[in-house]
Design a protein that fits this description.
By secondary structure, this protein is of the alpha+beta class. The protein is built from 5 helices and 6 strands. Helix 1 crosses helix 2 and helix 2 crosses helix 3.
Length: 164
């Protein structure tokens, strides 16, 4: 990857709202060059999506429940974990799917409206998926940082001293 392309993509990763003119100014290239780099990166699937990180906890009635699910699988001949991962990716509840090292093979981040909805997803959809041997579900209780963004200001948090 060339240096200017790297600079353009890193700038977009920090702020996807940058115009081609702003990208050009930040990276020392013309707006047209910035646009060409971005369009090619989109076509080549190097840029997968543009997104906004939202602190849903601040939105009344819009809370979501997140869970991290470890999945133990039986890899399939000639395709390994890819076929099972592809099936898991098709579930709309699965937000992120990773192949991981350790006791489990896949890590799946799931989003739902309630703990019950996620439990139903695991028991009715994920666990019965061909090749899935076992799952372990961890509900994410509090979000401190997402996609490199601190969710709230924790500078004011101080531990109270205990007197013995």
């Amino acid at each position: 990857m060339n240096n200017k392309k790297t600079e353009v993509l890193k700038a977009l990763q920090i702020d996807a709202r940058l115009s081609y003119e702003e990208l050009g100014k930040q990276t020392g290239i013309s707006a047209q060059e910035a646009q060409d780099i971005v369009k090619k990166a989109e076509n080549d699937k190097e840029i997968l999506a543009y997104k906004t990180v939202i602190n849903w906890e601040k939105m009344d009635g819009a809370e979501e429940v997140l869970a991290l699910i470890e999945v133990k699988t039986t890899p399939q001949t000639e395709v390994g974990f890819d076929a099972i991962a592809a099936n898991v990716c098709r579930f709309p509840e699965a937000r992120d799917v990773y192949l991981v090292s350790g006791d489990y093979d896949l890590c799946v981040i799931v989003k739902g409206k309630s703990m019950r909805q996620i439990a139903d997803f695991v028991s009715q959809k994920l666990a019965p998926t061909e090749g899935v041997q076992a799952t372990a579900t961890y509900f994410l209780m509090k979000k401190y940082k997402e996609d490199g963004h601190i969710v709230d200001n924790y500078d004011d948090v101080r531990r109270q001293m205990m007197m013995l």
